[in-house]
């Protein structure tokens, strides 16, 4: 038996972090290729993307999140959660997918790597009109936006919807999805992103460097608050009497993060007529199927600001943190 040949077939390159910290914790490792379980598939990664959660989990913040991801060090060293690629192996309980299928998913095993595994319930066929890098930009941001608009805000035709952070990953999807549902959409962004947000289909754009939407005269049936830089009271002021405030983020410090704001919203929501609802996004293959249909119909399109190779994930994260990204930062993986 040729031991070196066997190692080559079971090894892969991956971007890992074995401790919490900054960009200096990231390593370009050679590690063992993951093995799929009975309800999983092995994916040869072709595309991935950067999310805010990647930066927060790299730092281990908020600290309360370490209860789920590892108290002293990350339980899963490989970074990344979004993936698009080709199925290499199918678990024995998996039905509906076969080797060679092009898919996209959200994964726990890490996607900044040449291979990863995904649970079949978090999987869907890749949109045909997208490249792998574009498809890898969809899962977390697209699912979060879909669940915010459809499930929490319950947006319907004719609703007036305001979206903060409209030029970002989640926001750029939320603008398009709300428009697809027939809403009149107002996006909030910086001066530099006004044309971009308009290109997504927003009916109105507010430049937050010039105007404060909470001090305007307009009233909204739903506010999807991705930035969380206004108080609950300020947001409620511009909601209709039965309007919905969707809290997709929040401030609260290094220990508890958005939890405090969301708890205050839940308590206040018990005594006011408006609906104040925290958003907890759940990875579901069924929602990726919805997104795939919308994408292949040309109704929504992931906006990709820049694309980096796997070896430059640290640079991609640096760009994500230091710049006002329009849409997503994608990762192209050449196996």
Explain the overall architecture:
The protein is α/β, with parallel strands linked by helices and 335 residues long. Helices cover 29% and strands 27% of the residues. The protein is built from twelve helices and 15 strands. The chain has helices at residues 3-10, 52-59, 66-69, 132-135, 139-152, 169-180, 194-199, 232-237, 253-256, 259-268, 285-296, 313-322; strands spanning 11-17, 26-32, 40-50, 82-90, 102-106, 115-119, 123-125, 160-163, 184-189, 204-207, 220-225, 239-247, 275-278, 304-309, 328-332. Strands 3, 4, 5, 6, 7, 14 and 15 form a seven-stranded mixed beta sheet that branches. A six-stranded parallel beta sheet has the order 10-9-8-11-12-13. Helix 8 links the parallel strand 11 and strand 12. Helix 5 (139-152) crosses helix 6. It is globular.
Could you give a quick summary of the protein structure above?
By secondary structure, the protein is α/β, with parallel strands linked by helices. The chain contains twelve helices and 15 strands. The longest helix has 14 residues, at 139-152.
Q: State the helicity in percent bands.
A: 25-40%
Q: Which stretches are poorly predicted, pLDDT < 50 over at least 5 residues?
A: 1-7
Number of helices: 12
Work out the number of β strands: 15
| Radius of gyration, in angstroms, nearest whole number | 20 Å
Largest sheet: number of strands, sense, barrel closure: 7 strands, mixed
What would you call the structural class? Answer: alpha/beta
The coarse overall form would be globular
Determine the strand fraction and express it as a percent band: 25-35%
Distance between the termini: 25 Å
The average pLDDT is 94
């Amino acid at each position: 038996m040729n031991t070196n040949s066997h190692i080559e077939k079971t090894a892969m390159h991956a971007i890992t972090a074995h401790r919490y910290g900054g960009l200096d914790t990231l390593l370009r490792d050679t590690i063992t290729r993951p093995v799929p379980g009975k309800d999983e598939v092995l994916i040869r990664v072709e595309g991935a993307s950067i999310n805010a959660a990647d930066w927060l989990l790299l730092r281990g913040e908020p600290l309360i999140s370490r209860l789920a991801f590892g108290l002293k060090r990350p339980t899963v060293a490989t970074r990344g959660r979004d993936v698009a690629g080709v199925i290499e192996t199918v678990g024995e309980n998996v039905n509906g997918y076969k080797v060679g299928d092009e898919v996209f998913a959200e994964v726990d095993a890490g996607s900044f790597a040449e291979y990863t595994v995904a649970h079949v319930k978090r999987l869907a066929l890749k949109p045909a009109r997208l490249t792998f890098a574009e498809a890898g930009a969809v899962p977390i941001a697209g699912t979060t936006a879909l669940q915010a608009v459809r499930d929490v805000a319950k947006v319907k035709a004719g609703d007036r919807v305001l979206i903060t952070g409209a030029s970002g990953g989640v926001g750029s999807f939320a603008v398009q999805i709300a428009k697809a549902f027939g809403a009149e959409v107002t996006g909030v962004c910086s001066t530099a992103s006004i044309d971009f947000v308009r290109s997504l289909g927003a009916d109105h754009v507010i430049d937050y460097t010039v105007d404060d939407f909470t001090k305007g005269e307009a009233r909204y049936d739903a506010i999807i608050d991705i930035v969380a830089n206004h108080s609950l009271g300020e947001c409620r002021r511009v909601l209709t009497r039965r309007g919905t405030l969707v809290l997709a983020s929040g401030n609260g410090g290094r220990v508890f993060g958005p939890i405090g704001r969301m708890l205050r919203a839940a308590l206040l929501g018990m005594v006011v007529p408006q609906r104040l609802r925290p958003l907890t996004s759940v990875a579901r293959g069924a929602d990726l199927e919805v997104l795939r249909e919308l994408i292949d119909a040309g109704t929504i399109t992931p906006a990709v600001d820049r694309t980096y190779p796997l070896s430059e994930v640290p640079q991609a994260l640096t760009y994500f943190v230091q710049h006002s990204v329009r849409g997503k930062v994608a990762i192209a993986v050449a196996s």
